[in-house]
Write a structure and sequence with these properties.
The structure is a single chain. The N and C termini lie far apart (40 Å). Strands 1, 2, 3, 4, 5, 6, 7 and 8 form an 8-stranded mixed sheet that branches. It is globular and about 55 Å long. α7 (127-135) packs across α9 and α11 crosses α12 (242-257). It has helices at 7-11, 13-20, 22-29, 33-39, 57-65, 79-86, 127-135, 156-166, 187-197, 219-229, 233-240, 242-257, and strands at residues 47-51, 71-76, 96-100, 112-118, 138-149, 200-212, 260-261, 264-277. The protein has a domain at 7-153 and 176-213 and 269-277: Rossmann fold. It is an alpha/beta fold.
């Protein structure tokens, strides 16, 4: 499993890995939903499409917060994650639908009033083509809100983990231009892509807060969750042998113990929320 996953990885192994850790991942990322949904400016009943909906947590929260009469469609490239999302719906639910689709290339049946993504636009194989295609998913005048991770230095939840693992095994160099969590740490990169794609009224705002690692987990459990869930660290450690994983887990538990609050590990994070419209 690559440290810089492409779209095809999410359709297969990476999507299945996220699915296996779905509860912990959604609990950890839930704080991002409030500022992201607020950026959509849902001031009237709307048709809303989510790019990379994963297991459906954000789409369900959007529907809860949207004005009555709104409809939410979640799209993801991973069949496993879409299966999980559909399993959360009531049999009579009609206001939300989950579908397998690669929104980087697929065309919508009809455009939407709003387009949203929580950390799903960082993995396109061909970003200029993908964002140009996403313009087609919006009605003229429709708005979008995309969340991506900020700078690595502002996200110790990930950098601390990488530093711990790097002391145990050799890690490959990361490529800032490749698909990955910090691809748009430099906001100007994504602003330029969105502008060239044809979006307008572009703005970016940082959200800063503490994320509960894996949900409400104590340091040993949070360390196990992080090693199993983030990037390809767990696979790389497993290939190095049991001793490597044990050493990394012990060191990460010690690190996480310094960030324990009310029995759970909470670490600072920075997310950039990009907004704009289709002219």
């Amino acid at each position: 499993m690559k440290e810089n996953p492409a779209a095809s990885d999410w359709a297969a192994a990476r999507g299945e890995k996220w699915c296996a850790q779905l509860s912990g991942m959604e609990s950890m990322l839930m704080p991002i939903d409030e500022p992201l949904i607020g950026a959509l400016k849902l001031d009237a009943p709307s048709r809303i499409a989510e790019v990379g909906c994963g297991g459906g947590g954000t789409a369900l929260e959007i529907l809860r917060r949207a004005p009555a009469g709104s409809v939410v469609h979640g799209f993801d490239i991973s069949p496993k994650l879409i299966e999980q999302a559909r399993g959360r719906l009531r049999p009579d639910e009609r206001a939300i639908v989950f579908e397998v689709a690669d929104m980087a290339t697929a065309a919508p049946e009809r455009p939407y009033d709003r387009l949203v993504s929580r950390l799903g636009v960082m993995f396109f194989d061909d970003p200029p083509a993908a964002f140009a295609n996403l313009v087609r998913w919006l009605e003229p005048g429709g708005r979008f809100a995309f969340a991506v991770w900020g700078r690595p230095s502002d996200n110790p939840w990930m950098t601390s983990l990488r530093e711990v693992v790097a002391r145990v095994i050799a890690l490959p160099q990361t490529d800032p231009e490749a698909p990955g969590p910090f691809r748009y740490a430099d906001a100007s990169k994504l602003l330029s892509l969105l502008d060239r794609a044809g979006f307008s009224e572009l703005e970016v705002h940082d959200w800063r807060g503490a994320l509960p690692i894996g949900g409400e987990l104590a340091p040993p459990e949070a360390a196990h969750f992080a090693l199993a869930s983030f990037s390809s660290f767990g696979e790389l450690l497993a290939s190095a042998g049991d001793d490597a994983f044990r050493e990394a887990h012990q060191s990460l538990t010690t690190c996480f113990s310094r960030h324990q609050q009310d029995g759970a590990v909470r670490m600072d994070a920075c997310v950039r929320i990009f907004t704009g419209a289709r002219p």
